[in-house]
Amino acid sequence: MGFRIKTFEEYQQAYQKSVTQPELFWAEIAENFTWKKKWDKVLESDFRKANTKWFSGAQLNITENCIDRYLENQGHKPAIIWEPNNPEEQHREITYKELHHKVSQVGNMLKNNGVKKGDRICIYMPMVPELAISVLACARVGAIHSVVFGGFSAQSIADRIQDAQCELVITADGGFRGTKEVPLKNVIDDALVQCPSVRRVIVLTRSQTPVSMLKGRDVWWEDELKKVESMGNSECPAEPMDAEDELFILYTSGSTGKPKGVVHTCGGYMVYTGYTFANVFQYEPSEVFFCTADIGWITGHSYLVYGALLQGATTLMFEGVPTWPDAGRFWEIVDKHQVNILYTAPTAIRSLMAYGNEPLKGKDLSSLTKLGSVGEPINEEAWNWFSEKIGKGRCPIVDTWWQTETGGIMISPLAGITPTKPSYATLPLPGIQPCLVDENGKEIEGNGVSGNLCIKFPWPGIIRTTYGDHERCRTTYFSTYDNKYFTGDGCLRDEQGYYRITGRVDDVINVSGHRIGTAEVENAINMHADVIESAVVGYPHDIKGQGIYAYVILGTSLHDHELTRKDILQTVTRIIGAIAKPDKIQFVSGLPKTRSGKIMRRILRKVAEGEMDSLGDTSTLLDPSVVDEIKAGAL
Ligand code: PRX
After folding, report:
1. Which of 136, 309, 379, 400 could in theory staple to 412 by disulfide, Cβ–Cβ 3.0 to 4.6 A?
2. Is the CB of 374 under 6 A from ligand 1?
3. Per-residue pLDDT for 557 more than 80?
4. Does ligand 1 come within 6 angstroms of the Cβ of 343?
5. Quick check: CB of 403 below 6 Å from ligand 1?
6. Residue nearest ligand 1's atom 18 by CA
7. Who's near 91: CB < 8 A, 6+ residues apart?
8. Pairing of strands 370-374, 341-344
9. Looking at ligand 1, which residue's alpha carbon is closest to its atom 4?
10. Helix intervals (H) in 451-560
11. 355-364 long-range contacts, Cβ below 8 Å, gap at least 24?
C-alpha cells in the first residue's frame, strides 16, 4: 500500500488496514522518511496514564526530512515564498538550497549563544521568513521551540517563558500588520522583567522601530549572523534526536485558568504531519501552497512549515492581514504567485465575503486547484461562497478538523477523492478512530447520532504531555472518558457516517478560530480594580464565529461606567492580549448561582444568544430575580 492515496477505494483500504494492523500501517508510512536509525517498536500506549510512544528507539532530525533530502533533486525549487505586509515591498523567494544554508547559519548562531539540545527557546516574531528559519534552526540543533503568537501580551509571554523555563528568546524590533506596527521587542522587555531564566535575546531588524538593547543580554540577529559567517564553516550537522525527544511546546487555552504547554515529539509528529499534508491536500510537486495561518498557531507549525516542507512543497508565507490595503489582498497574492492550494479559516472567508464581488475583480484565480478550511465550523453560506466565488466550482474544499493537541488533521476529506458536503469534515483519516460518547461515557453506535467526540486509539501526532505537568495532560484529555482521548468538541455523525463538528462542549470559546478559555478571560477581567466578579460566555458572531460576552459585577467605585468598560478592555489586553477582549460587557448586580455557589452558565449563554424565552429551569437558583435583571439589560 502506497504513501499517497489516489482513489476513494484506496482510502477505504488504507483506513481498514490502519484499524486492523495499525503498527504495520504506520511502519510502512514511516518508511517514507529519512531516519538515522530505525525504530525498535512502532507503538507503546496506555491512554489511562496518558502515555504514548511512537517509533521508540528510532533516531532522526526533522530538518533533514524537511530540507536536506530535497537538496539534490530540487535544491533550486522555492521552499518558501514570502509576501510582505506592504504590497509595495519586494517579495522574497528562498530555495531549498538557500533554506539549508540559512537554517544552518541560524543553527550555528544559536550554538554560538550557548544553546544545547533540550534547551527551550521562546520565539516571538513577525511573519517573516526568519520566523520559519528560527523554528527550523531550533529543530536542527535539538532545541525545543515555543512560538508565541505576536498578538499576546507581555504577561502572557512571561507566563509561557516561565512555565517552560526558556533560556533564550528570538524576537524582532517590531512587525507590521496592516497599518499597525507591533512593538515586539518592547513587549518582550516588559515580559522579561519577570523571567530570570532568559539569559539571551536575539533581535532581528524588521521595522526599524527604536528599541532598548540591554548589555550582556540582548544581541542583534544581523551581528550574530556576521560572526557565524566570519567563522567560515557554514555546516550545521543535524542533531540526532530520539523519536520521542521533544520537538516543540505550543501553549493553548483550556477550560481552566492557565494555558497548557502542549508537547509534540520528533518522530510521530513528522510522520503524521507529512502524511496528512500529502494526502489531505493531494499535493503535486509543482504546486504552491498558501496557508494563511500565523506560525504562532498549530496550523502554521504543522502545515505552513513542517508538513509542507516535509513533502518538498513550496509554501507561501504572508505577513499581513486579509483586508489591507484592501479586501482583495488574498486574491492578489493568489494571482501574483499563482497559488494552487489555499488553506484558510472560516472567519477570514466570512469577513471577505462581506465585501462582495468588488475585491475579486481583475484577480486571476485560475491557478487554484484545491481549497482548505480550518479552525472552526464553517457555515454553509461561507462554504458555498468559498466554493463558487474562489474555487469557481472546480476546486474541492477540504474542511479539516483537528486541534493543537492532535498535531495534525484528523477528520477531513482527501481533496478531490472524498465526496464533500458543506459544513461536514466528512471522514476520519487513516489511523484515526473517532467515537461519539454520551454524558456517561457510553459509546453511541450507529449513524444519525450525536455526542461528545473522542478518539479511541493513538495516532502518531497525539499530544505527549503538557509541559512540566503530566498529570494535567492526563486529567484534561484522558480521564473524562475511560481509555479514550476526549477532544472537548461536540459532534454529529449523519446517516452516511459523515462527521460534523458542532463546537466546544467545555468552557472554551472559539473566537476567529482561536481558542480562548472563559476562565482565563474572567481572571483577566477580575484583575481590574473595580471588578468584584465576572462570568464569560460565547455567543454566535457573524464574522468571528463566536464572540466573547462578559457579565461583570462592579464594586462601589464612582467611576463612569463607560470608562470602566474601556478600562476592562484595556486590562484584558494587558493580561492576555487584544484577541481576548470581550465584544460585549454587561454590568449586572448579581450572577445566577445555584445554592452551592456555582454559576449557571447555561442561563448566561442563552441570554447572550438572545434566547430569553428558553432559559429552562431556574428554580434551583439562589436568587431567581437576578435572571430578570440580566434579561432586561441584555446587549
Ligand atoms: O473546536 C474545534 C475547532 O478548533 C478547536 C481546536 O483549536 P486549536 O487547537 O486552536 O486548533 C485550531 C486549528 C487546528 C477544535 O477543538 N476546530 C478546528 N477545526 C475545525 C474546528 N471545528 C469545526 N470544524 C473544523 N474544521
Report:
1. 400
2. yes
3. no
4. no
5. yes
6. 375
7. 81, 82, 83, 84, 336, 337
8. parallel
9. 375
10. 470-473, 518-526
11. 355/323, 355/327, 357/389, 358/327, 358/328, 359/326, 359/327, 359/328, 359/331, 360/328, 360/331, 360/389, 361/328, 363/328, 363/331, 363/332, 363/334, 363/335, 364/335
Q: How far is the CA of 400 from the centre of ligand 1 (A)?
A: 8
User: Domain 508-632 adopts which CATH fold?
Assistant: GMP Synthetase; Chain A, domain 3 (3.30.300)
pLDDT exceeds cutoff 80 at 559: no
Q: What is the mean pLDDT of the chain?
A: 96
Taking only the tens place, the pLDDT of each residue in 420-459 is 999 999 999 999 999 999 989 999 999 999 999 999 999 9
Percent of the chain with pLDDT over 70: 100
What are the strands, taking DSSP E only, across 257-355? 260-265, 288-291, 314-318, 341-344
Q: What is the mean pLDDT of residues 181-193?
A: 97
Counting from 1 in the atom list of ligand 1, the atom nearest the Cα of 405 is 9
∠ Cα 575 579 585 (to 5°): 80
Residues 6+ apart with CB under 8 A from 10: 1, 2
Are 371 and 417 in contact, with CB atoms under 8 Å apart?
no
Measured by CA distance, the residue closest to atom 24 of ligand 1 is 377
Among 389, 343, 291, smallest CA distance to 80 is for 291
Q: Which of 86, 180, 509, 125 is CA-nearest to residue 296?
A: 125
CB of residue 399 inside a 6 A radius of ligand 1: yes
Q: What does the DSSP assignment read for 408-425?
A: S--B-PPTTTSPP-TT--
Q: What is the DSSP string of 121-170?
A: EEEE--SSHHHHHHHHHHHHHTPEEEE--TTB-HHHHHHHHHHHT-SEEE
Three-state DSSP at 582 gives coil
pLDDT at residue 234, as a whole number: 83
pLDDT, tens only, 6-54: 999 999 999 999 999 999 999 999 999 999 999 999 999 999 999 999 9
For residue 386 and ligand 1, the question of a CB distance below 6 A is answered with: no
**Grid cell of 617 as nine digits:** 429551569
Phi, psi of 95 (to 5 degrees): -75, 170
375 Cα–ligand 1 center, Å = 4
Ligand 1 contact via 346 beta carbon (within 6 Å): no
Among 386, 403, 418, the mutation site with the greatest number of ligand 1 atoms within 8 A of its Cβ is: 403
CA 155 – ligand 1 centroid, Å: 25
The structure's pTM equals 0.96
pLDDT in tens, 477-514: 999 999 999 999 999 999 999 999 999 999 999 999 89
Q: Which atom of ligand 1 is nearest to the CA of 487?
A: 16
Tell which atom from ligand 1 comes closest to the C-alpha of 508: 1
The number of the ligand 1 atom at minimal distance from the alpha carbon of 401 is: 26
> Which three three-digit cell numbers place residue 585?
460587557
Among 510, 516, 544, the mutation site with the greatest number of ligand 1 atoms within 8 A of its Cβ is: 510
